[in-house]
Amino acid sequence: MNRIVIETMMGQNRIAVTRDDQLEHFFTDRESDWNTYGNIYMGRVEQIKPGMQVAFVNIGGDKNGLLHLSDIYPNPDNLPIDKVIKKGQDIIVQVKKEAVGTKGARLTTKYWISGHYLVLLPTEEKIYMSKKIRDKEEINRLKTFLEDIKPADAGVIFRTESEGSSLEVIEKELDYLMGKWRLINSRIHIAPKLLFKDKGPVIKTIRDYYTTKTDQVVLNSDAYLEEIKDYFSNYFPEDLDKIKLVHKLNIFDDYDLEPQIRELYARKLWLKSGGYIIIDNTEAFTVIDVNSGKFTGHKDPEETIARINLEATEVIAHQMRLRNLSGIILIDYINISKDKHKEKIIKKWREMSSRDKVRFKLVGFTELSILQITRKQEGKSIVNINRQTCPLCDGTGDVYNQEAFFYKCLAKIENDIYLLNHNRFKIVISPYLKNVIDEHKYFGHGFSFDQMLEEFYKVKVDIEVNINNEFDQVAILPSN
User: Which residues does the UniProt record annotate as the domain S1 motif (predicted)?
Assistant: First the structure.
């Protein structure tokens, strides 16, 4: 079945969109998160950097937003940024990219307000059409109608959902979106101030992903029930009976979604063929490596490789969408130097693009046969929402092994050589490092960790655990 499943629990919403009972899209939202994508603010210009052609704008968050000259509209004379805006100026801006890591939100003055059928572009005049609407008669019908009713100084994007819709509901939504924009412009506030917040994650998911092919909208709480019913009353009154309330804490278990969600946090994913992919996230880009793994395939090695690469492409596209990966994505396929193999991969990616509502671009293969993709950032990735940098490995994914820890202790002892005047000293470590020692009991020489130190220095060594120690903190002190 095709469902939208909404689990609300103690300030957290998890939303799954399924097709044929398989996870197609997944979103997490918490009250503690400062989600800003699409929000419109009255901001204040705090600093201008002419050399970079950017301005830093205070929108009320921990970090100032970044407004680049190319995102300031209008600027018909291509003036430099210090001639377009001034320090201390109040300016209406919209968040086009969420803040990530040390980087502040990316801002723009090319505003948009999304509806179910239309996206209003208040600073443009053109009419755009979703690329997924290909029927020329339908395109002409929609454009001709809108040209007669839209304001001359506003532009519009027809979303995919507008195809086949009645002109009456489109006109009604245009009036609604224009009313929103007039309200935003009528508000006068001292910056920084939030002027407009996009729909919450639940309604936004229904707006973006509900279709008449959706069989059910399932909730485990009545927190959003009335809001969803109101939305359906306006857009899908004949589908109100598809809304289903199930009072259960974790309804994802009922639809076998938890195993699929757990895969979203895995670095290594096995393919059905026996191959696997590795997904590594860095601040600059995402790197994905395709490996043959346990797959031996047929006698023809080229056919084996092509099959793994095509299967990997489907899985990567699926994970890219579910994890909401964005920015630069580099994929290292298996032995894909031949042009005919590259063409098959590109064709498969174009097939998969129809399932992704977020725009991405196939840049192409590099000289080293690595596929380059760029994907637009809309909101935060699953990793950024649910993971934090490990305080022990500082994000590398690697920690001290027992032997490296042994030599780290040697260095500390050598630094405090006076300790060797004592017949006994103690090493104070965290519970984590104690576990490292216990789990890797013996070196290749047949000694345990403390035995190695005792053998090396001919003294007695005691291991002491202090729960207040940092993960990798080591203190070496004389024993009483």
Answer: 38-110
Beta bridge partners of 360: 375
How much of the chain is helix, strand and coil, in % rounded to 5? 35, 25, 40
The 10s digit of each residue's pLDDT in 349-367 is: 999 988 888 889 999 999 8
CATH topology for the 1-37+198-265 domain: Nucleotidyltransferase; domain 5 (3.30.420)
Task: Round to whole Å and give the CA distance between 177 and 207.
Answer: 14
Residue 76, Cα to own-chain centre: how many angstroms?
34
Tell me whether strands 460-465 and 424-429 are parallel, antiparallel or unpaired: parallel
Instruction: Find all residues with CB under 8 Å of 338, minimum gap 6, and list them.
Output: 302
Give CA–CA dist 325/310, Å, rounded.
20
| Mean pLDDT to the nearest integer, 468-478 | 80
Q: For the residues 117-125, what does the mean pLDDT come to?
A: 93
Specify the pLDDT at position 33: 66
For residue 259, give both structure tokens: 């195993």
Looking at the chain, the whole-number percentage of residues with pLDDT higher than 70 is 92
40-110 homologous superfamily: Nucleic acid-binding proteins (2.40.50.140)
Q: For residue 73, count other CB atoms closer than 10 A to its CB.
A: 13
Residues of the chain with CATH 2.40.50.140: 40-110
Alpha-carbon torsion angle 318, 322, 323, 324, nearest 10: 100
**CATH 3.30.420 in the chain, residues?**
1-37+198-265
Q: What is the pLDDT of residues 281-300, one digit of tens each?
A: 887 899 999 998 876 655 67
Report helix angle 225-235 to 201-209, nearest 10. 30
CA distance 368 to 349: 19
| Encoded tokens for 186 | 């009528």
CA–CA dist 449, 306 (Å, integer):
49
Model confidence at 444, pLDDT cuts 50, 70, 90, reads low
CATH code 3.30.2320 region(s) in the chain: 402-478
* pLDDT at residue 384 is higher than 90: no
Q: Tell me the C-alpha distance between 141 and 319, whole Å.
A: 37
**For the chain, first and last CA: distance in Å?**
70
What number is the average pLDDT over the span 32-55?
90
CATH number for 402-478 (one of 3.30.2320, 2.60.40, 3.40.50, 3.30.2400): it is 3.30.2320
pLDDT of amino acid 299: 65
